[in-house]
């Protein structure tokens, strides 16, 4: 499937910002299941300081704000050809060893909520069936809802809320999969939604490692594995390592952010 993506993130600050840095993980890479035909990232109100690959082989752009800036606009545009591999990404590659994806993080630390979730989960015989069943089990216990209290809930906090968005589902799945003995990671990217070209945000899902298959994706929020409508951009142990934008700034005053995103199929 040939997808065209246009993604703009606009920041406004009530007071001039004397200094700020941001890391952008907004550049997808060509892999077995996707071929990046073209991709551009532009920044209005700032400048590119450096580009590099992080420990997860994500492409990262480091940008600074122009001194005194109050408006920053980051625009990504490109086209990607995606193949439906039934969610299978394949063998482990990159700089990070596979065993590191067993590691607990602040956002995926298991607790009483996860133990309660897993207490009535019946594990099928095969690893792949177990992970698909786990995805379904999480969605039945924590239904999708945009009415979330925070953008940075831990897996335990999301379980306590009893509902969540894609980010919450990914963290819960990662925590549970690791408890079952499967290395797991967070994925940020894009999803072309059915009959909806304009979207309010990018998407997130999880991947778990299965012997004999490699990495396999699970989109808990939509109850499926990624297909040709999904574009993978960045991966990490949790959201903090795969966030589309992250950074720091000096100065006081509120910040507002607006996202416009269009994902559409090209003929």
UniProtKB/TrEMBL annotation:
Pfam families: Bact_transglu_N, Transglut_core. Residues 158-222 form the Transglutaminase-like domain. It comes from the Bacteria. SMART domains: TGc. This is Transglutaminase. It comes from Marinibacterium profundimaris. The lineage of its organism: Bacteria, Pseudomonadati, Pseudomonadota, Alphaproteobacteria, Rhodobacterales.
